Amino acid sequence: MKILVCISKTPDTTAKIAFADNNTKFAEAGVQWIINPYDEWYALVRAIELKEADAGSSIHLVTVGGADAEPIIRKALALGGDEAIRINADPADPYQVASQIADIAKAGGYDLVLTGKETIDYNNGSVGGMLAELLDMPYVALATSLQIAGTTATVKREIEGGEETLEASLPLVVSCQKGMAEARIPNMRGIMAARTKPLKVVEPAATEALTQVAAFGLPPAKAGVKLVSPDNVEELVRMLHEEARVI
Amino acid sequence: MSVLVFIDHIDGHIKKASLEAASYGAQIAAQSGTDAEAVVLGNPGGLSELGRQGIRKVHQVQGDQLSVIDAQVYAKVLEQVATQTGATVIVFSNNSTGKTVAPRLSVRLKAGLVSGAVALPETGSGFVVRKNVFSGKAFANVSVTTPVKIIALNPNAFTVTDADGTAEVVAFNATVDAPKVKVTGSTKTSGKVALTEADVVVSAGRGLKGPENWKMVEDLADVLGAALACSRPVADAHWRPHNEHVGQTGVAIAPNLYIAIGISGAIQHLAGVNRSKTIVVINKDPEAPFFKAADYGIVGDAFEVVPKLLDAVKKVKGVS
Ligand SMILES: Cc1cc2nc3c(=O)[nH]c(=O)nc-3n(C[C@H](O)[C@H](O)[C@H](O)COP(=O)(O)OP(=O)(O)OC[C@H]3O[C@@H](n4cnc5c(N)ncnc54)[C@H](O)[C@@H]3O)c2cc1C
Ligand SMILES: Nc1ncnc2c1ncn2[C@@H]1O[C@H](COP(=O)(O)O)[C@@H](O)[C@H]1O
Predict the structure, then answer these.
(1) Domains defined along chain B, listed by start
(2) Is A213–B107 a contact, with Cβ atoms under 8 angstroms apart?
(3) Under 8 Å between Cβ of B142 and A214
(4) How far apart are CA B22 and CA A3, in angstroms?
(5) What is the pLDDT of residues A7-26, one digit of tens each?
(6) Fold of the A2-216 domain
(7) B218-245 burial, b if ≥16 CB within 10 A, otherwise e?
(8) Residue B143 in 3-state DSSP?
(9) Distance (Å, rounded) from C-alpha B18 to C-alpha A243?
(10) Predicted ipTM?
(11) CA B260–ligand 1 middle distance (angstroms)
(12) In chain A, which residues have their Cβ closer than 8 Å to the Cβ of B310?
């Protein structure tokens, strides 16, 4: 089975969120970059598990990003990808990213394409579905479990108030989230091996973005907490009832 | 501007998130002096009542093939409805169905998509929609430059409007492909109220010491009609089911009221709950970071405070 995992680079979960250039850009100074947690913990690790169960499989990684994305893609290789492709373009919007990846994916003949549920910076959750449409493959979003038997995939996905089990034939695009797999950390052997694994850089085909960020902003600060004594819980309930009107 | 709202439903009734989307879509239409229309795939109850949210016409597509939400099939049907009705703004709820279908429709129509919208579009110059980014720690104003625009509205970001009105329901004949995805089972999560749809969420963390102590939390949720949630270590330790885990790597929610009991308020936890309108924190440590993000707080032992809170809420709600 040939698996393609889409890997994106995001600020660390504890990064300070601030903006530069008149609030048009994320302020990158001092920010630590990580593999987007959904891509790493769930999509990539599940791909590795599937390969462990079927040694004939291969895992390719793809990222759309500049040279600054290379440490991230190397780390993903250290966890267990076989080879990686970096499409040398700054990500502009989900459509631009998906169309770049689609070109690679079409040429690769993949049975399974995995993405994260969303990136933790822009929270779009759009690339997987767009990619599926561009590839004319079925798509299951928000998957919490993925099993493969032959050419049939069994996928659990989250729906409001429950979970659904779906069956689909490969090839298939799946966006992954919690439940899929347990996080792993790369070992020394993986890190050494990653240095020599192929990382191909391809130039982007001309594509357009359909949206662009005009400006960023921070939500207004909270007014501050109103503390209530533990001996006066009724006062809290009164405030929630009369002031906040939430109960 | 011609607005088309996608109506999502489950177990025969329209999801609350879709009522929000309908209210939002109607408001956009009103801004440009037109009426909003809606599209539904399937046959839930209450379609004509969408008039109460300002929808004037509902295009209904029916067929057995639509009982499974196959994104590929749905996107093709919606493309037909959008093209025939001349829709220029298409509104989804950014719920599980919206997240599955909207990106595919975006490609088919080459329509720019803003997912996670939290406010009405600004149309003074161009078309700019505010969305949450960085898991609610910031927002972005996203400009859509294509002739057709798609907006996926975050659940609980827009209040359901309610006025007199009836929507006309008309059948729409669409070409419907055979689904390639088959549903082989489904389970309801234990809670009575779906976490992402709940107005009130009661959540607890490692401060509760062990799964055996959740009774008081469940009781509190019960009287409040609330859904249950928990922090990640609690789900990781299997004290609570995984689908209750909220935060950066769990479910993101935005209820009217979020009550956090024995949760420290780590940045990754806040990322999933900071869009809640009112946050109440109960923690024995006055230095717990959660107090900085809270509207109301009690510094105290959960095992003393929660039973008292339960009693006080019962009194206000008039239950014994
Ligand atoms: C990449 C990444 C992603 C993560 N994603 C998430 C996520 O999605 N969601 C999430 O929740 N976490 C997430 N975490 C973990 C997060 O950093 C915290 O470790 C976690 O939220 C802590 O859970 P907690 O508050 O329940 O436990 P603790 O941090 O152990 O806090 C327990 C709290 O209970 C209080 N307490 C103790 N006893 C009592 C008592 N008797 N009465 C009242 N209060 C009491 C303590 O004062 C303390 O504040 C993530 C971490 C990383 C690195
Ligand atoms: N620049 C990128 N390069 C490769 N994959 C990406 C990129 N951006 C997003 N993705 C993939 O698409 C998923 C959803 O991203 P998004 O739609 O941007 O929230 C991510 O979890 C990744 O798997």
Answers:
(1) 3-171 (3.40.50.620), 195-317 (3.40.50.1220)
(2) no
(3) yes
(4) 39
(5) 999 999 889 999 999 999 99
(6) Rossmann fold (3.40.50)
(7) ebbbebbebbbbbbbebbeeebbebbbb
(8) strand
(9) 28
(10) 0.92
(11) 10
(12) none
